[in-house]
UniProtKB/TrEMBL annotation, chain A:
GO CC terms: endoplasmic reticulum; Golgi apparatus; TRAPP complex
Name under which the protein is recorded: Trafficking protein particle complex subunit
UniProt-listed PANTHER family: TRAFFICKING PROTEIN PARTICLE COMPLEX SUBUNIT, TRAFFICKING PROTEIN PARTICLE COMPLEX SUBUNIT 4
Keyword Transcription regulation found: no
Organism: Microthyrium microscopicum
Automatic annotation (TrEMBL), chain B:
Organism: Microthyrium microscopicum
Top-level taxon: Eukaryota
Lineage: Eukaryota, Fungi, Dikarya, Ascomycota, Pezizomycotina
Protein name: Trafficking protein particle complex subunit
Principal location listed in the UniProt entry: endoplasmic reticulum
Compartment(s) where it occurs, according to its Swiss-Prot or TrEMBL record: Endoplasmic reticulum; Golgi apparatus, cis-Golgi network
């Protein structure tokens, strides 16, 4: 069970963060990574529209419509790309082995670390590339401490 | 007289407005009636502080010339807090019913007060070490392995000298000055800097274990030391 890498895509579709935790994937050039992030962002936006209009569950308040989530998992023979989109539109793309369990929990925790060490950092400007030592350190510690 | 409707953030039925314009709650529980010793339930949200601290740093960053200037501004923001905390913490006694603690008059008791009472009130734990500088008798060092204000702060590489705990240094300076111990300066340093003095002697392993270890260097004024010497002889 291996978590290969994490990409963070801002709401405009730009890659703001990437980090490799485990070797196993061929390293892409930074240009290719940018294209991957941008393309995924575009495909995600289209797949959100593709979904049929959701049926409103009877007891949901009208102010909170259930939205189509868009593309969430992309799977190949050697890896699985899991996408988690926050309410503000930031996307976390976690590339893991296909058999990796509990991805939901890992990605939630990554979001928590992002909220702590990126959003609460006085020197970070939103939507800009993330360069925070403490975020890197906390991510490494979290991913590597997992059994 | 302000109408209650003009201040929507305050529930109008909870406040009555006296003819003088002073507001006080209807249950007569003003801030003066409350118990001073509210330490157990007085904990605040760390996230709320983190966001407030971001704005404080952004405010301090406007029109600064350099890192020293920025640290000076953060220091100035903490100073009034230190002056007020000294009085507040002294009037709070550790056990209810006991008379309040007296103001520290000797150097060591002041430093003890800072590293235990002040640190516990602000951060919920005592400071990690208190040392006297080998270089000068007027310099004392308080170290904190992981300052609360720096929990979420990653300083960019081009400003690596900056330590946002300068704010805490300002609080310490306020306490010292308020107690009548004039300081030349109180500053916050990362250990590993040459400025950290002999506090940096911890070696490489400590640096790995506590990457955010900060030393507060307190330089007392000359007259404080002279007085201290006289008091020492009198006893």
């Amino acid at each position: 069970m291996v978590v290969f890498s994490l990409l963070v895509v801002n709401k405009a579709g730009g890659l703001v963060f990437n980090r490799e935790f485990h070797t196993g994937l061929a390293t892409l050039s930074s240009n290719d990574l940018l294209i991957l992030a941008g393309t995924f962002h575009g495909v995600h936006a289209i797949t959100r529209q593709l979904a049929p209009a959701p049926v409103q569950p009877p007891n949901t308040p009208q102010n909170f419509p259930v939205r189509a989530s868009g593309l969430e998992v992309l799977e190949s023979s050697h890896f699985r790309l899991n996408c988690f989109q926050t309410i503000t539109g930031t996307k976390f793309l976690l590339i893991t082995e296909p058999a990796q369990p509990n991805v939901e929990i890992i990605i939630r925790r990554v979001y928590e670390l992002y909220a702590d060490f990126v959003m609460k950092n006085p020197f970070y400007t939103v939507e800009m590339p993330i360069r925070c030592q403490k975020f890197d350190a906390a991510l490494d510690h979290f991913i590597k401490s997992r059994p | 007289m302000a109408s209650p409707a003009s201040t929507p953030s305050v529930p109008s039925q909870a406040l009555r407005i006296a003819p003088s314009g002073l507001r006080y709650p209807t249950n007569k529980k003003t801030i003066y009636d409350r118990n001073l010793n509210r330490t157990r339930n007085a904990e605040l949200s760390r996230a709320a502080f983190a966001f407030l601290f971001i704005e404080m740093i952004n405010y301090a960053q406007r029109q600064v010339k350099g890192i020293t200037d920025l640290e000076k501004r953060l220091n100035n923001q903490g100073y009034p807090l230190g002056l007020k905390l000294l009085d507040l913490l002294l009037s709070r006694s550790s056990t209810p019913g006991q008379p309040p603690t007296t103001r520290p008059t000797r150097l060591l008791s002041l430093l003890q007060f800072i590293t235990t009472t002040l640190w516990k009130a602000l951060f919920g734990r005592p400071a990690d070490a208190l040392e006297r500088s080998a270089a000068s008798p007027a310099e004392y060092m308080i170290s904190d392995n992981e300052p609360l204000v720096n929990t979420f702060v990653s300083v960019p590489r081009e400003m690596s000298q900056l330590n946002c705990a300068a704010y805490v240094a300002g609080v310490v300076e306020g306490v010292c000055d308020g107690a009548g111990f004039r300081t030349v300066s109180v500053s916050a340093h990362w250990t590993g800097n040459e400025d950290g003095g002999s506090g940096a002697a911890g070696g490489g392993r400590e640096k790995v274990m506590w990457p955010g270890k900060t030393v507060f260097l307190i330089r007392f004024a000359k007259e404080v030391l002279e007085r201290e010497e006289m008091l020492g002889k009198a006893l």
